[in-house]
Design goal:
The protein folds into 3 domains: 194 residues, FAD/NAD(P)-binding domain; 104 residues, 3-Layer(bba) Sandwich (FAD/NAD(P)-binding domain); 112 residues, Enolase-like, domain 1 (2-Layer Sandwich), CATH 3.30.390.30. Helices cover 30% and strands 24% of the residues. It contains 9 helices and 24 strands. It is an alpha/beta fold. It starts with a strand and ends with a helix. A 5-stranded parallel sheet has the order 3-2-1-7-19. α1 runs parallel beside α7. This is NAD(P)/FAD-dependent oxidoreductase.
């Protein structure tokens, strides 16, 4: 029997892959299947951002005289309905997982002590183990994080209603996404970023994303000294002495691997379980995948890691490859990007064409951005990014094509859907033409 600990993207996909290959698989999940992606992170952001975008589009069309009003938000109703949909999705995943042949055990903790496996207090025999116990929010060490009204993405569902003033602490994608959502809902939002907000993004993509955060106060290179309050949060005190009034504070300060239940394995300083490229841990026949092994903390990476672990458990040597895995961020538009190979090449950027979701924004002089990176010697596409409605779907396919070695010349034969907000195809054709002239 193979025991899988954790029913998130890595554990569930790994368990199903094993069961479909004929293995006897027992998946142990303490709560509902689907992991944080379904219950607190990805799907929650999708749900909230759908409402945020609707409000923003309505606001744009009201300003143009097309609509006579902008709808108001009932935050308690949003939260209630989100939970209902999440429960439905979880039940669908449960049925899908069981139909693949996986035995699912709910309400018990799976634990490891070296190569010994426990489900609750009972030790069980296992030929192999896949540990996919996920992560939890990283909570900073400054004072006040335990004051009522201070939330992480995990505890945000307990927020009773929209705050008038919210401070978001963090400088990454999640901080930007939640700031955008609550600003669209009508809250006054301030972001406090220790470094540059979205500093890892390409400068042009970052500039485009910041357009979607218009109206959000952004303090960069700023350190939080403490969160102030008593029975309720009152403010965020910065290291330079500035005090930001707040009715709610959201800590979007990263993730920490949840590996406390996995003992006897080699771990990094942050608790991440150390694995090789085949997802093997330091203990024979014990594998790990997903957030518990540390960055990149991406659902598509976790899914693939789970499958790679399963393949190796089955004796089919498979190596995890992170090249071309797309990353995305949801603001007013989708922002998505993927790269392969080393840095370098020539970068081309251009405004994106108007299409579904961006037509009315043309009145304000903006319809998004497309960008590619090309190896001028071979014409190979080695990077692509887009800040447009639908960018996430586009980059899923482009990431795969880039891994297969697609060149900008190959785009001459592609006939794309119209109307579309995608500007990558046109940029690729332009780059191909420039390379032909150079030759």
């Amino acid at each position: 029997m193979i025991v899988v600990i954790g029913g998130g993207p890595a554990g569930r996909l790994g368990a199903m892959h094993l069961a479909q290959a004929g293995a006897e698989v027992r998946l142990v999940e303490q709560r509902s299947i689907g992991g944080q992606c379904l219950h607190e992170r990805c799907m929650t952001i999708c749900a909230l951002n759908d409402v945020a975008r609707l409000i923003e589009y309505a606001r744009t069309q009201k300003d143009l005289g097309i609509l006579d009003s902008v709808p108001a938000v009932s935050y308690p109703a949003i939260r209630r309905r989100i939970c209902e949909v999440q429960e439905k999705l979880s039940s669908v995943l449960d049925v899908e997982t069981r139909r693949s042949g996986v035995e699912v055990v709910y309400g018990a903790e799976g634990r490891l002590e070296g190569n010994r496996v426990f489900i609750g207090d009972e030790e069980v025999r296992a030929d192999a183990v896949l540990a996919a116990t996920g992560s939890r929010p990283a909570v900073p060490g400054f004072p006040g994080t335990d004051i009522p009204g201070v939330y992480t993405y995990q505890t945000l569902p307990a927020m009773p209603d929209l705050p008038r003033r919210m401070v978001v602490v963090g400088g990454g994608v999640v901080a930007a996404e939640f700031a955008h959502i609550f600003r669209a809902f009508g809250s006054e939002v301030e972001i406090v970023a220790r470094h540059r907000l979205l500093g890892d993004l390409d400068p042009k993509m970052r500039s485009a994303a910041l357009r979607d955060l218009a109206g959000v106060g952004i303090r960069e290179q700023a350190a939080v000294a403490s969160i102030e309050g008593g029975a309720r949060v009152r403010s965020v005190l910065l290291a330079d002495g500035e005090e930001l009034a707040a009715d709610a504070v959201l800590l979007a300060t990263g993730l920490v691997p949840r590996s406390e239940s996995l003992q006897g394995l080699e771990k990094g300083p942050d608790g991440a379980v150390v694995v090789d490229s085949r997802m093997r841990t330091s203990v024979k026949n014990v594998y790990a995948a997903g957030d518990v092994i540390g960055p990149p903390y991406l659902t598509p990476a976790a899914r693939r890691e789970g499958v790679v672990a399963a393949e190796n458990i089955l004796g089919r040597e498979t190596v995890m490859d992170y090249e071309g895995i797309p990353q995305a961020m949801s603001l007013r538009y989708d922002y998505a990007f993927a790269t392969v190979g080393a840095d370098g090449g020539v970068t081309l950027s251009a405004p994106a064409p108007a299409g579904p979701g961006s037509f009315w924004d043309v009145a304000g002089g903006w319809a998004g951005l497309a960008q590619i990176r090309v190896d001028p010697g071979s014409g190979r596409l080695i990077g692509a990014a887009a800040g447009v409605p639908g960018a996430s779907t586009l980059l899923s396919y482009l990431g795969y094509l880039m891994k297969q070695g697609v060149t900008v010349g190959d785009f001459d034969d592609i006939v794309e859907v119209h109307p579309s907000t995608d500007g990558v195809y046109g940029l690729a054709r332009y780059a191909a033409g420039m390379l032909k002239k150079k030759e």
